[in-house]
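Technical annex B. To support the medicinal chemistry partners, we prepared a structural model of the target in complex with alpha-D-glucopyranose, based solely on the information shown next.
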Amino acid sequence: MTERPWWQRGAIYQLLVPSFLDTDGDGLGDLEGVTARLDYLEWLGVNAVWLSPCYPSPLKELGYDVSDYCNVEPRFGSLPAFDRLLDEAHRRELRVILDWVGNHTSAQHPWFRESRSSRASPRRNWYLWRDAKPDGSPPNNWVSVFGGSVWHWDAVTSQYYLHTFLDSQPDLNWREPQVRAAMLDAMKFWLDRGVDGFRLDAAPLFYKDPEWRDNPANPDYRAGELPDSTQLPKHTRNQPGLHELFAELRALVDGYRGERVLLGEFYVSTEELVTFYGDRSPELHLPLNLSWTWSKWQADVIGPTIADYQARVASRGWPTTTLDTHDQPRIVARAGIEQARVAALLLLTQRGTPTLYYGDEIGMRGVDIPSEQAVDPQGRRTGRNRDPTRTPMQWSDDTYAGFSTVEPWLPVGVDRATANVATQSHDAGSLLTLTRRLLELRAREPVLQSGAQEPREAGAGLIAYSRGDERRFLVVANLMHAPTSYDLRGDGPGRVVLSTFIDREGERVAGQVRLRADEGLVIALDAAPSESRSA
Ligand code: GLC
């Protein structure tokens, strides 16, 4: 049997460069900081690290406003510092994935400055410029993610340009062949340096309706959702050209030796998501499954979400599951510290590749920061502040959590007294220890990576599924703050290999398995007699 590629065996760790470790005393994390913590990541047991954008940027939007695709933001380091990070990661068999911001640039990117300078600029068509309607109003009704029209009036050349996010983040025109060529060259720049892949930011948005038609209103809009959700993205998302582009990017990446990988960020239904594996030709290796991040943490919501995703993806491509990202409240904020353990167990026993978010392994809650004080422009504009999810990694219980020697760019969590690496690494019962044990178990048991996953009927508040065919595991998770029990039924007796409380290892279970409040179990099922004969 040939070994599956690393991105099907391993786990991916997402971190924010500005929030991981500050080594130069400016309150902002940097690439040297990531390099300094590679030993930690190796010890934790992850196999790849996905870095937030570290390109030159005015940093108005966490670096998702790029002003040069082929360099490193000086506040984060330099190209030599990046190369060192890559070498040191590879020496430890850790892969490095970059965030690739293709939908838009910063308004400070030389391409946009040039495009904006005159209607006759050779780069005019690199961005999306349109005339006003006769009454002076914007070309159509499209709404920006951060509120208001996507169209910004530019007095210099008396036209509107399109920005899906901030007006300082103009959208690129992917229908312009020179844009395509320049962006693919930027990808090659990093692939040639040795990076192991990219996460395509805002992946379904790269192309817009060539006829610029109005979007219809969204009848299901609920107050509190982001402003663009007032409309259905009929003409702004997943437009003609997108699948062909992804197929081209895939061919580029596959042309390199060493199993490079493409991830993509999609806020779409699972049905739509699986089309990005590619129907006609291969597209993305891992269209990220973000459904957990927006689903209510309840067994009767998460359970069916898991079952639906695994069923739909089974024949289409390799599954992947994300618990948290830099865009949504952390699991502790969504579900409480007790359930963070259950969530870790569910995430790391899914079929497919899990992505972990920095700080979840120690149960960081994040910091409540009022929207008026937000650094995040989305927070200031919409009230949905993402700063709480982006605060400094907590290495110790120091004033600045061992992240920096000076006051960091975002406040440090008050939970650092207990939610920190130094304390939890010496605690055999900590969430950090549990996360390590789960990653270890997963690495040791290929069945947990790739074995079949079958949902089981479970009682209220429970999620249960089996993994594998011949060698079988059963995962049962109690999402309630009250004890309960689960009937093993036809799955027969077995042995606990792991409890989220790290205290039942080796316990024989049969019939009714009791679960404490907020407990999850991985049970190794005894082989059925017929199976053990044939094995
Ligand atoms: C993606 C990123 C998000 C950012 C947006 C605009 O959705 O995940 O953080 O705000 O793109 O770049």
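Notes passed to the chemistry partners:
The radius of gyration is 24 Å.
The domain at 103-193+204-238+254-259 is CATH 3.90.400.10 (Oligo-1,6-glucosidase; domain 2).
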